[in-house]
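Reviewer comment 2.1 asked that we show a complete input and output for one of the modelled complexes. We chose the zinc ion case, as it is the one discussed in the main text.
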Amino acid sequence: MREYPYRRRRRELRDRLRVGDADACVLYAGRNLQYLTGFQAEQGDRHLLLVVPAHDDPVFVVPALYDEQVREATDIDDLRVWADEEDPKALLREVGSELGLAGGRVLVDDHTHARFLLELQAALDTPEVGLAGDVLGPMRRRKDGTELDALAAAAGIADATMTELRAMGEEAVGLTEQELARAVERRLTGGGGEGVSFETICASGPNGAKPHHSRSERTIERGDPVVLDFGTRVDGYASDTTRTVVPAGDPPEGFPEVHEVVRQAQRAGVEAIEPGVTAGAVDAAAREVIEAAGYGEAFLHRTGHGVGLDVHEEPYIVAGSDTELAEGMVFSVEPGVYLPGEFGVRIEDLVRVTETGCERLNTSDRGWR
Ligand code: ZN
Ligand code: ZN
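Response of the prediction step:
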């Protein structure tokens, strides 16, 4: 059982609930619950939830089969355990009336299943609900030392994986995208990562021009550019990095030039980062380089996204965002150019905002050879 830093986070949440005029925050299993307690699980079909009241100690409602796991993982004292033959809604009513929540305003996790939400609202008698993400998102976007260490370790495993893949060279020719993606995933877990943080993207040749392409049975040929986008986790914290490489042979006409434009755009985005600068300004710095080269229309997505317990979280590095960057934020900078029928190029590093600028968490070679 680890006490630090969960108590501090729950204290901050309670302060924010009071300021925001909410009576409680209710979290079912998921990343927000993990952030506040250390307990990690997926949302199942039983009511398993933490109630953090603005003015009382938190209460953990736990199905009996999770009892031991929750006790081992968390420092929450007040556990209300219910067995399968009992009615959890009666227990929720009891907790709600004890905490005086009736008629109050409750924030629920953005990912709460609809059935849980409806049963919860009825049991607590709280018709007015808001989203917990509105309060927890801003808390989670600045990482503390423990979180930064985990993120750096996860990024390091991804970098080591990329370095090994690059060394494959000619060996990658003749593999299908599926096979190369599996080779990526074996290396991520072999390097000490906890599985993958999202399904590995391996997009070769024209498939690279589809930003949402995952992987297919297409065989990688000599001269094909390959977009590789992947990550793993350490202590629950994700990594996410992309390199576009040509394993062997000569690339298609125009590819080296486009690759260089994307690389310069990525560098311009990273160089724009420092505390106080807006997320929108970082997006603009990267986008300007691509627009100046005449590929503005081919850069189809935002420049980046925050990374933490979730692979996509605040802050979003998107045009027009006035979110100010602050020390401890971690996000991706990943401009791309996608030319339908030809190829795509994306280069992605995670960065952390420091006191005076930023530091890249990914440092593996960004070239295409
Ligand atoms: Zn990515
Ligand atoms: Zn990303």
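The two ends are 47 Å apart (CA to CA). We note this here for comparison with the apo prediction described in Section 3.2.
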